[in-house]
Amino acid sequence: MNKQNVKSNYIWNAVGSCCNAASTVVLLLITTRVVGEFFGGLLTIALALAQQMLTISSFETGTYYVTDGNNKVDLSTHLSAKLLLVLVSVIVAVAVSSMQYDFYKATCVIIVCIYKIFDGLSALFFSILQKNDRLDIAGKSMTYRTIAVVMTTFISQFVCKSLGISDKTNFLISVIAMAVASVVFIFTYELHFVKKYAKLFFSLKIKNIFSLIIDCAPMFLGTFILTYICNQPKYVIDKMFSEEVQNSFGIIFIPSSVICMLGFFVYKPLLVPMTENFTNGEIGRFVKTTLRITLIILGITVLCITGAYLLGIPVLNFVYHIDLSAYKTALCIGISGGGMYAISMLLYNILSIMRKQKIMLVAYIVSFLISLAITKPMTKVYNVNGATFSYLLVNFILTIMLSFIVFVFIKKKKHK
């Protein structure tokens, strides 16, 4: 990989990741300002459930593909598995939403889920481009698709508002437009470039498809649990409070999500070289890269906490045009939790490189059980502050456990 490619990959991956992270901010901003706080809260919980469905459609096959140094599984098997997973995700989204909500809310949530579910296919396309040293194209695609989705949503809501269409109908039309824009972009622009670097055809070897799914199952369960832990406060708030409170929580939770995405673009371009380092036994370089990324994430977190404490609430009040003064503590706690979450995701990818998914799953299950045990009681007693603190505590415990597992296996690798 030449220096020019490295620079281009880093720049476009950073731009794409930042745009993707900012999309939630902007979509929530547009909806809150144009349609109202109620629908901002509805969008918040819909995106949380959609992110959960994305873990099913993704199933971490993209991560497996990138870190498969020996090309154990062919691309046709990945594509067939992906289509199956997308179908399963849609079925689960319909079932879960229909059981929990009234017809209107369920319909909106299902459409937002479909918008995110196809990101699972996009993630595989992203991995194909990354493995062919074209992370710059993947980054551009992520950037352009995010812009297309945001602009389509804004135009849809603005036009409906101008025509005097009810807010309820306006919001429904806007989420349909959002989903259509994203899916069309994936099957046109993204697919066009992926075809230049890979021959896309499907495998009918059922045994190979299910073998891949079984291999990825520990990684999927880890991501599913981690996403659930991240969204657990929103699920609890959805059951205990109004959509307006959910909207406020979604807004103060945004900086936490941004840190997670910033961490992602810091380490994502390094997964392939880190895989090569580990495979070739260059453990010193592997450890050094891991520590450097961890310090960068911690530095970003500290800077964000400082900025949030000094200016966070006034800025959010101005941007979203609602009073969030009561949530200053929750904002800072949530950012701390986001930093822990970002580090835990780094460690997750490291253990994926090591192919230690099964032992990693133990840490996720323990954290999941802790989350189930403490989030609801803490939210009942301390409201939104309790929800954010439970998020921080669970991610801190998870990070400690994963760090210990990584340390043990690196030590073993060094002594071989």
Low-confidence stretches: none
Q: How is the main sheet built?
A: none
The multimeric state of the shown protein is single chain
Label the structural class: mainly alpha
Query: Helix-strand pattern, N to C?
Result: HHHHHHHHHHHHHH
Write structural notes for this entry.
Helix content is 88%, strand content 0%. The protein has 416 residues and is mainly alpha-helical. Helix 11 (271-279) packs antiparallel against helix 12.
Short summary:
With 416 residues, the chain is mainly alpha-helical. It has 14 helices and no strands.
Q: How is the secondary structure organized here?
A:
Layout: H1 3-34, H2 37-58, H3 61-66, H4 75-100, H5 103-117, H6 119-131, H7 135-162, H8 167-197, H9 206-240, H10 243-267, H11 271-279, H12 283-320, H13 328-353, H14 357-414
